[in-house]
Amino acid sequence: MSEYVIFDNEKVIEYIKKVGSFFDNDAVISSNEFGDGNLNLVFRVQDTGGNSIIVKQALPYARCVGESWPLTLDRARIEANVLKRHAAVCPANTAKVLHHDSTLAVTVLEDLGQLQILRSALNKAQTFTNLGRDIAHYLARTSFYHSSFYLSPTNKKALVTEFTNPELCAITEDLFFDDPYRQSERNQYPQALESHVAKLRNNVPLLLEIAKLKAKFLTASEALLHGDIHTGSIFVGTHETKVIDPEFGFFGPIGFDLGSFIGNLLLNYCAQQGRIKALPQRRKMQIYLLDTISVCLREFYVNWLSLAQQDTKDLALQASGFAEHFLISVLQDSVGYCGSELIRRTIGLAHVADIDEIEDEQTRLLVQQQALLLGEQQALLLGEQLILNAKNCQSVEDIYQLIIGSVQ
Ligand code: ADP
Ligand code: MG
Fold first, then answer.
1. Residues spanned by the domain of 331
2. CA of 247 to the centre of ligand 2 (A)
């Protein structure tokens, strides 16, 4: 156990050599810090023979803001342990932890550099056949095996304590459920949206739904969530889907993860309005996104139900019809969380590159003048409608039809 010290490339190499076991003893290794995330340092350490690992270190503050926003180092422990637990039940879709040191807030991970970050790939209009199925599989398995259906009450309570993550949850509580609905210096949106934002903040039924969603986020310890599963937290390839970065992990409502993922696909759906000019290609991409949402919802439902039927340990929760009842409430929650993700990513602090950073200059101009504004307004309306209608949905088909109806 060493004392916490912020790594640079030299210190990383020294540390990796000391831990040993990653490279041959006589290997010549180099390091490069390349993290593009908001919060942490990410180094790639490699030898001359093409072997590499990723070293991720938490800073005692949020990287994107600086030392004025202190942030607990404990998030590194949470992230490594969520990855380990999720990998134990879904190894195919979880990034592998090779080593972790809580004092240094350092985690060594398998290098997934041969894959792409999903958000970047979607922004290049690339599609992945297995994406909806794989994420459904990941979300169903990680949530079921960390729920009261499977864990003993004693074990579950111990894990809830182990994964208590107050500082990072507070960020979500503020940015997701509060800021978009009040005046806050952190919010960011163009002046042209001001009247719509004002309307949203005066929408009493919407505020009531947001309150219910926040209350559930604050109180429902349903399962060990990823906590931040947007399209920047997923690596994809033709045959692979790997989830990274669960530092916001905690025991919360299962629909939060499902809704966050679907919300980010819908944000990309909206952004395509300003990204792909040719209508047939744009519709093709948008249909792919809707199909992925459809597959994800259905597969999540089917996977979860079959896990519940085979593996529910709790006697009372085995009652006929209970798993179905529980799953519908999860799906309803997911529509609400999806809607609030669309709203907060459009007018809150953290936006998405899909809408904000269109690569092609002409397209970016188009977005600035017309399409981005339209996309943002669409996202706002979409979020609002989804949230208001969530309780009318009683089957996985109803949920999908609601989402489809909202985007057409
Ligand atoms: P943060 O928590 O700061 O957001 P992330 O975990 O999202 O950090 O990682 C930031 C970036 O580092 C990712 O977008 C990706 O490019 C790279 N990265 C992270 N983990 C890996 C990995 N296991 N393999 C390859 N690249 C990675
Ligand atoms: Mg991140």
1. 116-407
2. 8
Q: Which of 55, 90, 110 is the last residue in one of the domains?
A: 110
C-beta of residue 270 within 8 angstroms of C-beta of residue 375 = yes
Report how far ligand 1's centroid is from the alpha carbon of 394 (Å): 38
Q: Check the CA dihedral 398-404-406-408 and report its sign.
A: negative
CATH number of the domain encompassing residue 305: 3.90.1200.10
Ligand 1 pocket, residue 79 CB under 6 Å: no
CA 348–ligand 2 middle distance (angstroms):
17
Whether residue 230 is found in the same domain as residue 90: no
Cα 63 to chain centroid distance, Å, stands at 19
Ligand 1: which of 56, 240, 352, 357 to mutate, most ligand atoms within 8 Å of CB? 56
Each residue's pLDDT tens digit in the chain (408 positions)?
Answer: 569 999 999 999 999 999 988 999 899 999 999 987 678 999 999 999 999 999 999 999 988 778 888 999 999 999 999 999 999 999 999 999 999 999 999 999 999 999 999 999 999 999 999 999 999 999 999 999 999 999 999 999 999 999 999 999 999 999 999 999 999 999 988 887 788 788 888 888 888 888 999 999 999 999 999 999 999 999 999 999 999 999 999 999 999 999 999 989 988 988 888 889 899 999 999 999 999 999 999 999 999 999 999 999 999 999 999 999 999 989 988 988 988 888 888 888 988 889 888 576 555 445 433 333 333 333 455 566 667 766 667 788 887 877 776 665
C-beta of 40 in contact with ligand 1 (< 6 A): yes
